[in-house]
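re: that complex we talked abt at group meeting.

here r the seqs, copy pasted straight from the sheet so there may be weird spacing, ignore it
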Amino acid sequence: MALGSADTWQHLASRLQKGVVCTDLSSRQRFALGSLLPQAVIWPANEEEVATTVELCAEGGVALVAWGAGARQRQLPPPWRYDVALVLSRLNRVVAYEPDDLTITVESGCRWDVLGGLLAPRRLWIPFDVAVPCQSTVGGVVASAAVGWERAGQLCTRDLLLGVAWVTGHGQLVHGGGRVVKNVAGYDLMRLLAGSWGTLGVLTQVTWKLLPAPQERAIGWVGSRSLVHALQLAMACQEQQPLPTSLAAVAFSPSAGVAEAWRVGVVAGYSGTPEEVRAGKAILEAKFGDACWLPEADAAADLVRHVRDFSLVGPAQPWAAGLRLSLLASDLMTCAEALATVVDKAQASVCIWPQRGTVLVRFGEQTPRTSCLRTWLWANEFAREHRGWAWPELWPERWEFESVSLPHLYLSRRVKEVLDPMGILSPGRYWRHW
Amino acid sequence: MQWAHLRESLRTVVGSEGLIEPYEARKVYECDGYTLERAVPELVVLPASTAEMCAVVRLLHRAGVPFVPRGAGTGLSGGCLPLEAPVMIGTSRMRRILEIDSLNRRVMVEAGVANLEVTRAVTEFGLHYAPDPSSQAACSIGGNIAENSGGPHTLKYGVTTNHVLGLELVLPDGEAVWLGGWVDDVPGYDLRGFVIGSEGTCGIVTRAILRLLRNPEAWQTILAVFPSVAAATSAVSAVIAAGVVPAALELMDRLIVQAVEQAYHFGFPADAGAVLIAEVDGHSAAVQAEAEAVKKLCLDAGATEIRSAATERERAELWKSRKRAFGAVGRLAPNYCTQDGVVPRTCLPEILQRIVAIAERYRLRVGNVFHAGDGNIHPILLFDERDPQEVRRVLEAGREILAACVELGGSITGEHGVGVEKIAEMPLLFTPQDLIVMQALRQVFDPEQRSNPGKMFPSPGGCVEVARPRRQVPV
Ligand SMILES: Cc1cc2nc3c(=O)[nH]c(=O)nc-3n(C[C@H](O)[C@H](O)[C@H](O)COP(=O)(O)OP(=O)(O)OC[C@H]3O[C@@H](n4cnc5c(N)ncnc54)[C@H](O)[C@@H]3O)c2cc1C
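got the structure back, here u go
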């Protein structure tokens, strides 16, 4: 098969159902990444079609990017080759739902909000939230190891995966894990795939561990005069049990489109049994007399939405670029103090999740590139000095950053070679050269 | 390299105190808790630091000699059986707790540290290490990582992989690499997650950074007595379905309750068909309500008696009864084999019925003590190893039980690992393609398959016989 020729797509189309392969310009434009347009968009209807597509792409050296609903595609730089957009939105079936066993298996194109809606009547949930749930699919959440600001305990995406089915870069359908809540048979492939951004395979099915949904929720706001002060308040919320189930110290820049009253402060959520929520509210009120409780379903929820979606960067978001640090809790205050000056100068917005040690810094369009760069250099050094890590997120141009150690890098590269020997899965998106 | 020369080179690295040579001393290492197969290693090496470990493994690499990592040897699937590897590398001299960061709730330990030692070391800070295998007084953190071990409290708090933030792995060529780190998120593929549960087939873990949890503010430990196992398992299903997530939900059947009672006199009713130990913990405001809910569900399911531990001492006693159950089984028969299957929690009544039928068919006595809340069963098959026919029946019954677990949508192992014991069952769960991919990934870490060879995967083309006579590869 000649790479990218009309023959390629005809050959593919002949192996798949009618209407699955589109090469018209408008379809392709919907899936542009940076300045790159795919040559074809493929909507497989089931996992066999995913396998066939990837196998044929591997034969022809055709580079593909798996797409869910697209919310996180712009978190990464574009690939250095991009021939096919493999859109998984038609793989949206529930394969097995066992509410009494607290497990569910769904196809990877299933939308996060739809899944939440399915679980709600039995008062179940996958115990963490994600940014823009209505533009997120299960596959995208797993591939990016996305995790939002609300979580039950320490749990995150990787901790809740019980099993996966996925197609390797050879086009082979492979399974890992199973459908029960405890299982150590074979290697933990779920963890390997989670956060691999589609570079090791195309996810087709995911089995989740479910938990009973909180019976009640309350989200409180405590306004503050500065980021450092907000972080102090947030840390104070963690001194007493019950701990908040969602906690963020935020400082939005004036240009971020957030109402003045909500610009700087702490958002603390308590969820669980009515008794736990009542106790949580009492703590917040006792500590901060001026705490106010946000009405559940209304537009003060706008603030909550801003906090929830803060992690996303991209054209649909208020942020043009960003960076993330993962730190130990004891280093957050020093980080916030240092950031305070940067924030003002660079007109950046900052959101800190103290429970996870995550610091998110976001820049708007108006921030000069040099300010972004200076902040990034500082963040990288700070993280290194404090046993942490820093990442750039969505920069218009690719920025080098030292990620893992050399032996780790070598092992990662070998893993990639085993699972994607032709290098067709999102080449160069996650690792610069491969 | 000549064997004698290799031995001397190893001695130079670890000193005479780090080499175990006499046959009688090596015989201690002939098996782990899975005693149906045994093989005495040719040599046992005990490095005392990462540097020594690297040097030892590098020497073996140069000599092309396979090795078996070993922690405390409490494994229950023959994971550290030296079958195709003459050299055993133990971590028993690597037992230092290197750094406690109570502020950030982290601890860095060497791989040979016993699980319980970690919690002991941080108790003064009101913290604990959550994974608590019943063998926690003896088993090592390295072994826990290799097996991705669980325990009674993993129902609420998760298994080892949920609590290991970073680990240092000595690759089979002798190079040490850190995977993960001190913080929650690290860049790159989650190789740390891949290595946890890899049963020593990727190299030897030498150090680990563990997450600690705050001790719960309040707890209630409940003992519910049932007339039958069926009634107890239906209580388990009811608790899970009611949306209560206890910290632990453990079940013991009549045979085990009687053995425990005879051995330790905890005061269990002699006529109990089964007992359920349920613990709820968390914020005091919620614990009371959850405990009441659990008690009510147990009574609805037919519990004849409910007791609550009123003091920390009573609670500790209750847990001791559960964690010492395996020890008590020793009074019932000369030998026992602990199986480790998983079923969806709603299938617990069904699998337990099937186990009874299988035991009857194979004329075996079987007791059950298990992590009911996770659907993780541990049928204990009693036998006398001097009777080869009975040994064969035990192995066959074990295989049938695992096949039944898979048939009900479960797994062949929830926490003990595949080891040598369950290799033949891997194809019940995974397609040939799945297994090929896993083995290809193993070669990323261990291209020559010298770290714990002969474990986890069926050999290509061959099916594993039940209790085939296995030998060590001569040096
Ligand atoms: C009475 C009893 C109760 C038990 N209860 C439980 C329970 O509740 N939950 C549970 O999960 N398990 C339980 N087990 C099983 C066992 O204790 C665990 O599997 C434990 O993690 C093994 O640790 P170990 O140090 O003894 O490892 P070992 O038995 O020495 O080794 C186990 C495996 O790990 C590998 N290994 C050991 N150390 C390393 C290392 N440093 N690097 C790489 N690989 C290594 C070995 O090669 C082997 O494959 C129980 C066992 C007994 C005897």
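couple things i noticed - The first strand of chain B starts at residue 19 and ends at 20. Residues 388-407 of chain B form the longest helix (20 residues).
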